[in-house]
Amino acid sequence: MLKNSPSDGIRNESSLHRTLKFHYSGSDGQAEIPAGSYICDGRTSKGELIEIQCGSFGPLKEKVEALSRKNKIRVIHPIIAQKYIELYDTQGRLLRRRKSPRKGSTWDLFKSLLYAPCLPLLKNLTIELAIIESVEKRTDDGKGSWRRGGVSIADRFLDTIRASVVLSKPKDYYQFIPFKKLTPFTVRELAEKAEITPGVARKTLYVLTKMGLAERTGKQGNTVIYRRV
Predict the structure, then answer these.
(1) Residue ranges making up the domain that contains 70
(2) Is 228 among the domain residues?
(3) pLDDT band at residue 4 using 50, 70 and 90 as cut-offs
(4) Bridge partners, residue 226, by sequence
(5) Where does a domain end: 168, 186, 210?
(6) Which residues contact 39 (CB under 8 A, 6 or more apart)?
(7) Is 0.70 surpassed by the pTM of this model?
(8) 116: closest CA among 184, 68, 70?
(9) For residue 12, what pLDDT band results from cuts at 50, 70 and 90?
(10) What is the pLDDT of residues 181-209, one digit of tens each?
């Protein structure tokens, strides 16, 4: 029995998800195909399974673990480097367009891996970070979140794929530890060197420690010391 049906995914997917699904499956590939007891977003002409995951990897953990036992699988994780927000009225007329001040980075991956930190260790798994620009369509209909003043998010669209970062093996994640092997460092030192917030650095080290690429070596006062291993 299939654990998710094609209609379930198609009914709830955004235009962004759909565009990425067809792009990475390729013109000679297939979309919404059965694999074991699951439905995958796509499969390339070479047989590699494709999954598009815009949010946390937690809900994908069981599926990817099962499919990777017998298949090569590539999870595409979009990183929104620039988002444009378009606001429409209920008649579909564009009211205004602006750039979102938030800019995503490759370090956002580790927030998404918090509930599946060992997933990158799977032998047949590749995680590809698609660095993109997107458009978020909003409708001023009074039915959305109070945080947005009642404005609803109607859809999300792909604008441009700027670049990609391919992570096929655990060693590929060493690029997120900008220190030499066995050099001690702290969360704050990682944050300063990588130009990220301490919160992001903390999430990064949680995942990399679970993966066995970094380890805690002790404390200086209340400060935890890490090193690359």
Answers:
(1) 6-168
(2) yes
(3) low
(4) 185, 216
(5) 168
(6) 2, 3, 4, 5, 6, 8, 9, 32, 33
(7) yes
(8) 68
(9) confident
(10) 989 999 999 999 999 999 999 999 999 99
